[in-house]
Amino acid sequence: AHLRARLPLSGRTLADLGRDLAAAPDWLAAPHGAFGTGLESLVHETVTASADAFGADFAMSRGMRSLPDLVRALRGENWAAICDWDITHFFCCVVPRPEAAAHFGGSRAALADAAWAMSSRMSYNSWHFVAGNLPREPEVVARDHFVPPVIPDVAYFSDQHHHGHVNNNVRFSVRSPQPVEVDGRRFDGFMDLRLLRCAGEPFGEQDLLAAHRVSGFVARATSLAAALVAAGTGLEVTAFDSDWHWTAVTGTGPAAPGALAGPDRRAS
């Protein structure tokens, strides 16, 4: 109901919504709601709905900001350029539920800081995975990267051992990676959906299965957006930066310089 009310889609299930989107995807590249593109709106609304539906303290989804840059690099076989993009070429939309502030001293500012730290880290993950989908050319082999994930998983009590999860009070999580096709090339782990809980009950198998359907919906939308780009349509993701997270979480104007922390990383 959340997605049907906020996106130009109809259907009773995510599969129905995906088919409706595939039949008329052009709006993904046009402004929609408060966003410069429909893709950004779809990602945000899906993440927001997921946080509520799963009772998660945080929900998030990551991706690449410029599909046109990626298509151009692929067609030119410019593997070095792709490997040299820094984490600002990627994004992650993080949506905390308002109740999650209770785990951060009741502070919306601290909640926004945690959301941006997560967003930055997830952008780094996208940076780390993308090279694993490229041909094993010397510049790709030389570039630090992980094998892209393909299997969804759950984690329990990661606030006891995972440094980032300790810092941000993340106890239970679901990760559901999905492939995206860009100009005929499959990119495993191009995006994912993550659900986090700071306390309460752990996520179970049914949560994992349902989350994988949700991430599949976003991946399908991203592949459709990439097809539009491959056919010549412009599409850039400009939302989900530090100012966006601060305003979305706190309800106030952009944060002062340095107010939001987050890692940075370059390939060279």
Attribute tags:
268 residues; alpha+beta; Beta-Lactamase; five-stranded antiparallel β-sheet; 10 helices; globular; disordered C terminus
Describe the structure.
This protein has 268 residues and is α+β, with helices and mostly antiparallel strands. It has helices spanning 2-6, 14-23, 38-53, 67-75, 79-84, 108-130, 138-141, 163-167, 205-230, 242-250; strands at 58-64, 90-96, 153-156, 172-182, 185-197. The protein has ten helices and five strands. The protein is globular and about 50 Å long. Helix 3 (38-53) packs antiparallel against helix 9. The protein has one domain (41-250): Beta-Lactamase. The protein starts with a helix and ends in an 18-residue tail after the last helix. The longest helix is centred in the last third of the chain and has 26 residues, at 205-230. A hairpin with a 2-residue loop joins strand 4 (172-182) and strand 5 (185-197). A five-stranded antiparallel sheet has the order 2-1-5-4-3, with helices on both faces.
Major sheet, described briefly?
A: 5 strands, antiparallel
Distance between the termini: 45 Å
CATH C-level name: Alpha Beta
Helix percent reads 40-55%
Could you give the topology of this structure?
Blueprint: H1 2-6, H2 14-23, H3 38-53, E1 58-64, H4 67-75, H5 79-84, E2 90-96, H6 108-130, H7 138-141, E3 153-156, H8 163-167, E4 172-182, E5 185-197, H9 205-230, H10 242-250
Antiparallel strand pairs: 1-2, 1-5, 3-4, 4-5
Helix pairs in contact: 2-9, 3-9, 6-10
